[in-house]
Amino acid sequence: MKDVKYLRKVILSLAWPVILEMALHMIVWVFDTAMVGRLSAQALSAVGLAGAIVFTVTFIFGSLGAGTMAIVARYIGAGRKEKAEDTASQAMGLGFLTGIGVTLSLFFFSDRLLACFVKDVDVLHLAITYTRTTSMAIGFMIVLSVGSSIMRGTGNTKTPMAIAGITNGINIIGDYVLIFGHFGFPRLEVDGAAIATAGAQIIGSLIMMGLLLYGVTGIRVRFSKMFKLDAYEIRRIIKLSFPAAMEEFTHSGSRVVSSLWIAGMGHIAFAANQVAVTAESISFMPGYGFAVAASAIVGQNMGAGKMEEAEYGAVQSTGMGVLLMSVVGLLFFMFPVLLISLFTDIPEVMELGARCLRIGALEQPFIALSMVMAGALRGAGDTRGAFAVAAISNWLIRLPLIYIVVFLLRLNITYVWMVTVTQFAIESGLMTMRFRRKGWRNIDLEDI
Length: 448
Hints:
Helix 10 (231-263) packs parallel to helix 17. 82% of the residues lie in helices and 0% in strands. The chain is built from 18 helices and no strands. It has 2 domains: 13-229, no CATH class; 240-448, no CATH class. It has helices spanning 4-36, 41-61, 64-77, 81-115, 121-135, 138-153, 158-180, 190-213, 223-226, 231-263, 267-280, 284-303, 307-334, 336-340, 347-360, 364-380, 383-408, 413-436. It is mainly alpha-helical.
């Protein structure tokens, strides 16, 4: 158990593909923004808002993968591959059916939803068009997310990374061809961006489905069992996944509310905050990678009855994640202006954004600690614990303090970032306390 060098090698082999996968998603986001930004300010605003809604909805419902990964990892660790495949089959069927419902809801009600946020008629029209087109792929996007979680539960993080590379490559090429009308294709502008995104996600999902149905990656989903939903299996998946979905909703909802409040501080403050948040998001990639590694290691070791190994693996994953994100934080602190300049050349925004990013450097180790500990808890099946801490952190600490800073004390945007340092320091402490109490050791997924 104490072979630290070997364990760290295993953790890195699980984490680096996830980190690279996240980097690929960010590259696509940058390319999307750059290409749509060449059209008009209205197009950029429309795609930015609509894309945020579509992908937030996908992440929330794609959290079905959290419960699925915990169960699959536990079965794989116990050597019960057939049971893992049964759970995987049920989860894929549930993901597809859920996706159909989400697609229909977003397609028919996107106009009412977007009207709550957009007053500019041109932006609203473009946003509705983009949302309705991309919503046609949400069912596939949820299936892709669940499929990736299934593979990660078996310890395979490289295949989801490869599929993400193919998907994102198609997205970038599709954007270039369809937005601007190259190689004989019509110039579709925002419609082209939506079609490229939807088409790429559908292709990625079909590749994932093909690999799982044929068992190419070592675990096989059986089509015959996908839609013969077993009440016991579905209840377990939903019971484990619902808190993870609420955790995602909590984080997303908190960000939306705080952004709306910050928008009232003026366009310079809002822009500075946005570019600083964008720059800081680079650091989340290693944290997410080590969180996935912790989930897989904890789940598989618990399935094998190796509780000490599960705990030790989580601690090592956390230590590596904290170390790497602390290095990133040091770069934020030393070179904030250089990093901010990658996203804007407006002097006032650069100066204020750099100050925010320098403060954000202080929260990097806390974010890493929270992310990886949460991953370990989810891998053990304690999705409720991770959600409870997120709810306390966001609704009882982050939002009340930001409200006080913005509306009562009327301080500048840097104080909002001081609040987030406080938030993540407390959140990481609570997450660590939850893990150290070791209640997760007693979770029997058969009894859920």
